[in-house]
Specification:
Strand content of chain B: under 5%
Structural class of chain A: mainly alpha
Largest interface: A-B, 44 and 58 residues
Number of strands of chain B: 0
Distance between the termini of chain B: 25 Å
Structural class of chain B: mainly alpha
Order of helices and strands of chain A: HHHHHH
Number of helices of chain B: 9
Number of helices of chain A: 6
Radius of gyration of chain B: 19 Å
Distance between the termini of chain A: 119 Å
Oligomer: heterodimer
Strand content of chain A: under 5%
Order of helices and strands of chain B: HHHHHHHHH
Largest sheet of chain A: none
Number of strands of chain A: 0
Shape of chain A: elongated
Chain lengths: 151, 201
């Protein structure tokens, strides 16, 4: 108590006791309440018993893990900011066709049949395949036209 | 339990505080593993003073028991936040006070009904007894109508012998604020007591 603190007022203290503000519980009442509190906590304690291992591990290492994560993030940021710029290989032209076999691309674009496409890949002779595919389409359409006129 | 020892339960820790802190740390380590017996030991250790504090806040036994039960469970839920090596009681008491002040504000009106009929003294004349009862009823009404924090402060100061700085730490306020609460509360209680001639006896 400092010199600035007021002194207790005996009249108020007595009156507080008189109106029952100072009732103390009996030992039996305390035991009943204790049992109630522990029973209420039992499901929570059981969960802790079951998950104790990983939980404790996490808690025990949380400070270390946070420090390691922060250090790794700082190093990664430093690496990104200070990494040397990589040059593109010389002679590379962006947008140039990279395939050495333009016939293969044409065949795919013209929707040749899978059999013809396979033949093109095996033979690497796309011009023939494209020609054959065009001839086959012509034959098919001619047959349909003659069939229609016959009817 | 005698009343004097109940008041003592609320007083700050004894010189063997470090031993108590060490014991608490061992108990809490077991509770973190889910040890029911250890939790029971912790409850037993602090239940009496927790309930005494709860009664200061709630002014009603059943409400105080509910508050204490709730506070112990909350402490268990947040037991990872408790730092071993520090005393457990201030941590628990702050949980009780914070929850109690919230609950107390909500329930203060209901408690105005809880007035004692048996107050009196056999040596008084019937007129004196009537007057005493009326004044004490007014006193109790003034007490329960105080703001929850003011009621707690005045009871801790007048009944439990807490100093202003100890109360300030408990209710997380400055000593000046506690002094102000104490001043307002005591003024209202004195006013309620003013016509009472025999309460000093």
């Amino acid at each position: 108590m400092t010199f600035r603190d007021p002194r207790p007022d005996p009249r108020i203290s007595r009156a507080l006791r008189r109106v029952g503000a100072d009732d103390a519980p009996s030992a039996r009442e305390l035991a009943v309440l204790r049992r109630r509190i522990v029973e209420q906590a039992e499901p929570f304690l059981r969960r802790r018993r079951n998950q104790g291992v990983w939980w404790e591990y996490t808690v025990a290492w949380r400070r270390t893990l946070v420090s390691v994560a922060l250090t790794a993030a700082a190093l990664a940021m430093f690496g990104i900011l200070h990494a040397p710029a990589r040059r593109l290989p010389g002679g590379l032209v962006v947008g140039a066709r990279s395939s050495s076999d333009p016939e293969l691309l044409d065949a795919v674009a013209n929707r040749v049949s899978s059999g013809d496409l396979l033949e093109l890949i095996v033979s690497s002779n796309g011009g023939d395949v494209n020609a054959r595919a065009a001839k086959r389409r012509d034959d098919t359409s001619g047959a349909i036209t003659s069939k229609g006129s016959a009817q | 339990m005698p009343k004097a020892s109940a008041r003592r339960e609320l007083l700050p820790s004894s010189p063997s505080q470090q031993t108590a802190i060490d014991d608490d740390a061992a108990i809490i380590a077991k509770i973190r593993e889910g040890d029911r017996t250890a939790f029971g030991a912790l409850v037993e250790r602090y239940l009496a003073r927790a309930l005494a504090l709860g009664q200061r806040l709630m002014h009603h036994r059943e409400d105080a028991e509910d508050l204490v039960q709730d506070a112990f469970f909350s402490a268990l839920e947040h037991i990872e936040d408790f730092q071993p090596g520090r005393p457990f009681w201030p941590w628990l008491s702050r949980i009780i006070v914070n929850r109690g002040l919230d609950l107390g504000a909500a329930r203060s009106i209901r408690r105005t009904e809880l007035l004692s009929d048996e107050i009196g003294d056999d040596r008084d004349s019937p007129a004196d007894r009537v007057e005493r009862r009326e004044v004490l009823e007014r006193f109790e009404r003034a007490l329960v109508l105080l703001p929850p924090k003011g009621r707690l402060v005045v009871q801790l100061f007048e009944l439990d012998g807490y100093s202003v700085s100890e109360i300030a730490e408990l209710v997380e306020a400055s000593p000046a604020t506690v002094r102000w609460h104490l001043h307002v509360a005591r003024r209202q209680l004195r006013h309620a007591l003013s016509p009472l001639r025999g309460v000093e006896r």
